[in-house]
Description:
By secondary structure, the protein is α/β, with parallel strands linked by helices.
Amino acid sequence: xxxxxxxxxxxxxxxxxxxxxxxxxxxxxxxxxxxxxxxxxxxxxxxxxxxxxxxxxxxxxxxxxxxxxxxxxxxxxxxxxxxxxxxxxxxxxxxxxxxxxxxxxxxxxxxxxxxxxxxxxxxxxxxxxxxxxxxxxxxxxxxxxxxxxxxxxxxxxxxxxxxxxxxxxxxxxxxxxxxxxxxxxxxxxxxxxxxxxxx
Length: 199
């Protein structure tokens, strides 16, 4: 059994182990950013599919991206509107992002704040984590902690009773092009990219 208590999961994550916990979309497979290679290995994931940096608040994420004053204002507006929630913003990465999170194109990073009390509680204590859905690459996201435990026996999964409250749909992904947003994946949030989100 690799199902562990909240305290042990947080301790394990801090120590650099792979962990899994519920979010508002699909359960996450997560590790501290420096250990992101563990996620690629466990999922058998292609290096050209970057991971998402997830944190308990937007304030914990802005250090990992870089832009000018106007860009930060546009990004903040979208974050204020949709976070916490199922929206991932792909933005220019700052030097703080380990290259291993996005090996092919380390110039960008996807960031998100989940609308999940459990996930926020964990992230508030671990700091931002490299995350992705818990499944083998190319397969549907696993929906229960028991399924995750079976497929990833070495991952610390959160001991969790009852149904996971996530919607079961991955986050919507929007990439900043330098002047406006490009939707890479429509997911949990129906994003309206209108002219007010442009510079």
